[in-house]
Design a protein that fits this description.
Layout: E1 4-7, H1 13-23, H2 34-42, E2 46-52, E3 55-64, E4 69-77, H3 86-96, E5 103-105, H4 113-116
Parallel strand pairs: 4-5
Antiparallel strand pairs: 1-2, 2-3, 3-4
Length: about 140
């Protein structure tokens, strides 16, 4: 099986949604909100994709400044193509696009915790997330 990789190749929104479905990432992405998915694709700074012929089988979509931090927002590999090194290659190619000091940051899917440590990631205990619908509360004055 020959897999080819592309950097910043335009991906049709429906093709991307189908990949999300085939990777199970659709469970945590707004695949029914076409405008949101289009915005995600249009406003990504870096998109590395894996192709088997004309079929999109993997994608690493990032938001980055290329120098200091890179948020790897989506790492999706078609379930039929998993455990073949495609996800690792997508991450390696992402890293190659970044300057030496640039860190890759990601939020792991619930079932993927065991994947990232063995390939070199360090778990960070000081990550904070505010939900999409949550509001920032005013800070309380110190006594």
């Amino acid at each position: 099986m020959r897999i080819t990789y592309e950097i910043n190749k335009a991906v049709d929104v429906q093709v991307f949604i189908e990949l999300l479905r085939r990777s199970t990432l659709s469970e945590r992405r707004p695949i029914d909100d076409l405008a949101c998915i289009e915005g995600m694709l249009e406003n990504s700074d870096l998109m590395v994709t894996a192709w088997h012929g004309q079929k999109l089988v993997g994608a690493a979509r990032s938001v980055t400044d290329f120098h200091y931090c890179c948020y790897l927002s989506d790492l999706a590999v078609d379930e039929a193509y998993q455990k073949k090194g495609i996800g690792l290659k997508l991450q390696q190619l992402t890293r190659e696009q970044l300057k030496e000091r640039c860190a890759i940051i990601l939020l792991a899917a619930p079932g993927a915790d065991g994947y990232y440590g063995p390939i070199g990631y360090t778990k960070h205990e000081r990550c904070w997330v505010i939900g999409r619908k949550d509001r920032l509360a005013p800070r309380q004055p110190r006594p």
